Amino acid sequence: MNDLRTMVHFPIGDRLFNYRAAAIIIRDGHVLTCQEDDDEYIMLPGGRVELGEASDAALARELAEEVQAPAAIGRLVYTVENFFGHNGKVVHELGAYYAVELSDFPFGSGGVVREIEEDGHQLRFEWLPVTGDALQARGLNPPWMRDRLMRLPLTTEHLIITEPSLLGRQESYA
Asked: Which of 8, 77, 98, 118 shows the smallest number of beta carbons within 10 Å?
């Protein structure tokens, strides 16, 4: 691959396409989450896939950059076509969610365990319980993941999810 990095992320008018790989990292009943800057929501660690890059390689690259700890990328748990609204745009996101094991990464509930700056953004990583209402209260995105973390499928599942606010629109998004 050449030195030019092209993320698979492009806006077209009021729409946006995004290709993202994310890590499902569960330890002792907690999932590792990430908050960027002062966003009102949290997400699973990961990031955009580059043009010509496999999703598992993209995730390994993103985790090396973000969590700064050795990561073992495991099986693909979910592929998702996700349609949602964000910042005034209708987003069509293709997501690859992998089970990941982290070695040599701090664990603890009740606060941020790692904080870094990447590409001008402040990232904060925190372990939250997969049971109870912590993920709901902190606004884990995508919302469909909140309940699924408690019962990950044994085989890869493909999901097509349309945010309820988009269901009434004239065009079909899924």
From this structure: 118
Residue 18 tokens read as 């995004």
Q: Which residues pair with 33 in a beta bridge?
A: 126
**Where is pLDDT greater, at 165 or 66?**
66
Amino acid 73 reads I
- Which uninterrupted H or E stretch holds 149? none
Whether residue 58 contacts residue 73, with contact meaning beta carbons closer than 8 Å, is answered with no
Indicate the class that CATH gives domain 9-162.
alpha beta
User: Residue 57, class by beta-carbon neighbours within 10 Å (0-12 exposed, 13-18 middle, 19+ buried)?
Assistant: middle
| 29 pLDDT tier (thresholds 50, 70, 90) | very high
DSSP 64-108: HHHT-S-EEEEEEEEEEEEEEEETTEEEEEEEEEEEEEESS----
Domain boundary assignment for the chain: 9-162
Contact 33, 42 (CB under 8 A): yes
pTM of the model: 0.91
Most confident of 2-6, 74-78, 111-115, 168-172: 74-78
